[in-house]
Amino acid sequence: MGKVPHRKAGASRSGAGSSKRRAASRPRSAVPARSIVRKVPARMGGAVDFGVRYRDLVAHLPVGVYRTTVEGVILEANQVIADMLGFPEPNALQKVKVQDLYVHEDDRREHLAALEREQFEPAEFQLARRDGTTLWVRDYCRAVADEAGVVRFYDGILVDITAEKQAREALRQSERDYRQLFESAHDAILIFAAGDGTVLEANQRACELYGFAHAELVGMPLERLAKDAALGRARFREMIAQGTHQAFETVHRREDGTEMAIEVNTAVVEHRGVPAVLSINRDITERRALEQAIRDMAYHDPLTGLPNRKLLSDRLELALAQARRGRRAMAVLFLDLDGFKAVNDGWGHAQGDALLRDVAGRLAGALRTGDTVARIGGDEFTVLIPELPVEEGAAEVSRKILRELERAFRVGDSECAVSASIGIALYPRDGETPDALLKSADAAMYRAKLAGGNRFAWHGQ
């Protein structure tokens, strides 16, 4: 719906005679299918009667059809135009000037400028309804010139695109909301290709977590991130095939190669028209370390780091069950340090604790893989030997422990010596339950201590 000044057409509008000659000299198929300017005889004046059939067709079209003068007077309009603008019938539009309908004056100027340049591209702009509300329209307009090339009218088709604009804006807003959530999420979010696991997209938190720039992370193969990429791809394939989501824990690597425990929640999504896997990753390295520390506190001695009485009891129960099934022997050693009280009283508890830590280290170093040494309390330790092919094996372990303790210990700036009294109890000879074996080993230890210490003794001998 436009208005441009009267003007003469250029060389292409040099007159009816030349136009007829050009038309006669070229094939009909060479005539442009769409023309911005349609010439009409000047004698036809303002209104053109296109006949009853034309008017009936225009009246029943689902789009608005109009004709205006260059001054902005609406000469013709169908009922759709009237409904768009909130008027009861087309005749009511005769008192309306086109320029008064535009919400933004710039839209009208740009629209007219495009018509001046004979551009056929449709224009989109807002118009004001009779009640003051607005609507978005798409205008397919063309200038109609007379035989002299002077623009007389504007013919156009007007389409209400308000719903389309609202849908587009809703989509854009949804995309903005998604992007904001995507980028502001506390967790790392990555989108992987369903086939090979290549990273298709990543948020800022993912870049921070893994230590890569966004340009580096996008396009990166799964092998750079996952410790077990083959398992990751297998999970992706399973998800795509079943259309399910998965939650699991795995190990990923940062840019510097350090490993981290990752809690992963995944879902199948569509990314740019192709199946993909959305992965929300949370670094749980600290949580796992804290959980391990809590477990250590529950099952390990806080001073020496050795298993405590509870963990020893669990392992002893397991070892007994295996010994019964395998019909094999096992041994429990009860160990008490000789001379520790003098060190603790003479140098203080801090030095005494340091000595206990050194003793614990030497005891652990003297055992075989699969054996357990636990601190029961004070200067008392217990050794579990779950597999004992021959009884003499327990004696060999005891001798090795005594040799380890023969070397002097450093306490502060001085050195001191401590030894141990060790009692040995065998399953099933000296007991078939944890309590029975521990009591037998304890009794044997006292026999070794009464004999002067720095030795081992068998229960019942």
Q: How would you describe the shape?
A: rod-shaped
Q: Spell out the CATH superfamily of the largest domain.
A: Reverse transcriptase/Diguanylate cyclase domain
Q: Termini, distance in Å?
A: 116 Å
DSSP strand tally: 18
What is the helical fraction, as a range of percent?
25-40%
Question: Notable features of this structure?
Answer:
alpha+beta; disordered N terminus; 18 strands; Alpha-Beta Plaits; 39% helix; 3 domains; Beta-Lactamase; five-stranded antiparallel β-sheet; 461 residues
Describe, in plain words, how this protein is organized in 3D:
- With 461 residues, the protein is an alpha+beta fold.
- It has three domains: 11-165, 2-Layer Sandwich (Beta-Lactamase), CATH 3.30.450; 185-284, Beta-Lactamase (2-Layer Sandwich); 300-458, 2-Layer Sandwich (Alpha-Beta Plaits).
- It is 39% helix and 27% strand.
What would a concise description of this structure say?
It is built from 14 helices and 18 strands. It has three domains: 11-165, Beta-Lactamase; 185-284, PAS domain (Beta-Lactamase); 300-458, 2-Layer Sandwich (Alpha-Beta Plaits), CATH 3.30.70.
Annotate the secondary structure layout.
Layout: H1 16-25, E1 38-40, H2 51-60, E2 64-69, E3 74-77, H3 79-85, H4 105-116, E4 123-128, E5 134-146, E6 151-160, H5 162-184, E7 188-193, E8 199-202, H6 204-210, H7 214-217, H8 229-242, E9 246-253, E10 259-271, E11 274-283, H9 285-299, H10 309-326, E12 330-338, H11 340-347, H12 349-366, E13 372-377, E14 380-385, H13 392-406, E15 409-411, E16 414-416, E17 419-427, H14 434-450, E18 455-458
